[in-house]
Fold these 2 entries.
Entry 1:
Amino acid sequence: MTIPAKYENDVLRPLAAVEIREGTVVEVRVPVDQSVGGARRSIKDLPFFGMWKDRDDIRDGVEYVNRLRDNPRG
């Protein structure tokens, strides 16, 4: 069951009627994209950015991907 809720003043408040027994322990999952501040991170800040920068066979990323799409088995 998924229940939409809003977090206010240290309390999760359901946005719809909830049909569960009083005192039921629940598990809350908060989506990762709901970061505090709401600012979108730059791709350059992500840990995988530039991981292939030292490879000689990938000079242009777009060209490399297009080549793989045209001939996926090499």
Entry 2:
Amino acid sequence: MTDLLAARTQMALSLGFHIVFAEIGIAMPLLMVLAEWRWRRTGERAYYDLARRWAKGTAVLFAVGAVSGTVLSFELGLLWPGFMRYAGPLIGMPFSLEGFAFFLEAIFLGVYLYGWERVGPRAHLAAGVVVAASGAASAVFVVLVNAWMNTPVGFTLDAAGSFASVDPVAAMRSPAACQQALHMLLASYAATGLAVAGIHAWMLLRGAQPAFHRRALAVALCVGGPAAVLQPISGDISARVVAVTQPVKLAALEGQWATERGAPLRIGGWPDASREETRWALEIPYGLSLLAFHDPRAEVRGLRSVSKEDRPPVAPVHFAFQAMVGLGSAMALVALWAGWVAWRRRDVTSNRWLLRALAFVAPFGFLATEAGWIVTEVGRQPWIVQGLMRTAHAVTPMPGLVVPMATFTALYIGLGAVVVALVSSLVRQTSGERA
């Protein structure tokens, strides 16, 4: 394994591990705040118990997310010093703002956890709102950095290719900023909301404490359901931005090798790099041109428009994109089903087929997120900053990077085992109480 591959693998493992806890840190505070709000409005004890238990889970997962996020921040400097030296003047501001939001979230999470009997009801609920808002803000600031890496702006270059002037505020307003932030937030609420809904649906199927789990399912669906339905719309917006700003990435997503007008939309298929064609795909005529540009005759650039060394690995990007779309579509359909049942004023919890569907799609959101980050990061290769800096030029010259890669992999396995044990304990505590 080369040092470049070891560094990329370590970063991929770190990001893939952390992103799950980042999503939970965005959405779980909203769930616990809604549960407390319902308790204070209705006085039902089930909502109080729900808020307390979700707060415990939030604290555990927040701690693991903080550890993995800290590791990521060190890895950026240790593994990619060339990138930090080059891009630091432009991405320093959003990273600083993310740190501020993170500390705000940590402080008010402490107030929320230990302030139930120590602060007033309004102050306690407000602390939860701050936790939810700062968690979302923290994610947005990090995503702004990634958006800049995909669509770099906010600078001018001198004759040597170095930055002649920088504007960090303009860099935060890159063309991909709004759509990536929206996509990430919706993904977080959809993945976490439907995962929580799936857990409580499974508990209801087993007959555990119906009153508690019915209310938990309702709150989780209120957050995860709308987000899951809106996510495909956000994905369409994202694809159109990618079509304009990163046409080679779009070609890899769709397995589009030739530049053509009226390009078809491909479902499935096997991208064959040696033959430069995508085999066995179901093709919808004019579909890609229509979706990417809202014009069935629009021209779509193919992978052959750039040299082979400037193309991303097509197969993993294409398969990850197909997986993301398939998983997200399944979540949206189940969310629409639940919304239809609720709109007809029927009890969602009495529909056992719907409960089974919710339990089945529970992990889909996190799997779709992992696939989406493969699309975003691998689809940009060989660039760490699109069109400006190659990944190979950003990696540290220090040899032996396979050693820290193996070390941090072991760390993540250990952290994952601890999380599974703690969350399983909380679930067993809940499932042990039956009506």
